[in-house]
Specification:
With 286 residues, the chain is α/β, with parallel strands linked by helices. The chain contains ten helices and seven strands. Strand 6, helix 9 and strand 7 form a beta-alpha-beta unit. The longest helix has 27 residues.
């Protein structure tokens, strides 16, 4: 078990636990440092910090996860210590969420054309006030009995190569890194190689080349200790993080999705020294 988990999702994006429930779970698991890194939104942070106030020994990092586009794939960039109260940042994130909704509407339309009776109203009900994402569509597909698990919905229908997949407007990785730095965030590349637990998550192609390009524009870390990564994957990524002088980060990427074998908070994460390095990087930025 680890004391640090820097990659967690709540009901404000595509997780199924509220920030309060997730904080309580992390405390039960013995975590000392956590980061809520919802997709394209920081709206869950107010509740997270309110819940965390009952546990003064728990450190909560304000974070976010951004999806970025590269030819034939995508790269996710995490931002730690983001200045989430900045109005300009919130306007940008609002536009990102609008793009997510437009993409989700297109996916539901494609599923309907394929004969899957998934209603847009139900997807919105599942998402609630969250930033709408593919996991909400996947849950609707599971509810209707078309597949057993959300992961199966990605594999069969809404993964990048799936017949109901729809693209949306995304930043380039470089633009995301620059944006995070502009708003006080420490940019970190998320899950850079294949994850069996999330089978739609392929490895980043030309990883060494991309790391070099992103380091030049401000990338400061990379996930090394992630989800279901094997010891060999961790060793490979740790060597890369050392080579590029990047902070080795990581976490469970917990969504409480109901998929079999999903890593839970506290099951994987970086050492406390990585958190200390993030704090030092933040202090240098400010």
């Amino acid at each position: 078990m680890t004391e640090v988990d820097l990659h967690l999702h709540t009901t404000f994006s595509d997780g199924t636990l509220s920030p309060t429930s997730l904080v309580e779970m992390c405390v039960r698991k013995g975590l000392r440092v956590i980061c809520i890194s919802d997709h394209d939104t920081t709206n869950g942070l107010e509740e997270t910090f309110a819940a965390g106030s009952a546990y003064p020994e728990l450190v909560i990092i304000p974070g976010i996860e951004l999806s970025t586009d590269v030819p034939g794939s995508e790269i996710h960039i995490l931002g730690y210590f983001i200045d989430y109260l900045n109005n300009d940042l919130q306007q940008i994130l609002s536009k990102f969420r609008e793009g997510r909704e437009d993409r989700a509407i297109g996916m539901v339309r494609k599923l309907n054309e394929m004969g899957l009776e998934i209603s847009w109203e139900r997807v919105k009900e599942i998402a609630g006030d969250a930033s709408i994402g593919r996991p909400h569509i996947a849950q609707a597909i599971v509810e209707k009995g078309y597949v057993q698990y959300p992961k199966d919905a990605f594999d069969k229908y809404i993964g990048r190569e799936g017949p109901a997949y729809v693209e949306r407007m995304k930043l380039t990785p470089s633009d995301a890194v620059k944006m995070l730095v502009k708003y006080g965030g420490i940019p970190v590349m998320a899950h850079p190689t294949y994850s069996e637990a999330k089978s739609d998550r392929e490895g980043v192609k030309s990883l060494r080349e991309i790391l070099g390009e992103l380091k030049d524009v401000g990338l400061m870390g990379m996930e090394v200790y992630y989800g279901d990564y094997t010891e060999d994957q961790i060793a490979y990524l740790k060597n890369l993080s050392d080579e590029f002088d990047l902070i080795p980060c990581g976490g469970s990427d917990y969504h409480a999705s109901g998929n079999p074998g999903e890593p839970e908070p506290g099951s994987v994460g970086p050492p406390l020294s990585s958190y200390n390095a993030l704090v030092e990087a933040r202090d240098r930025l400010h």
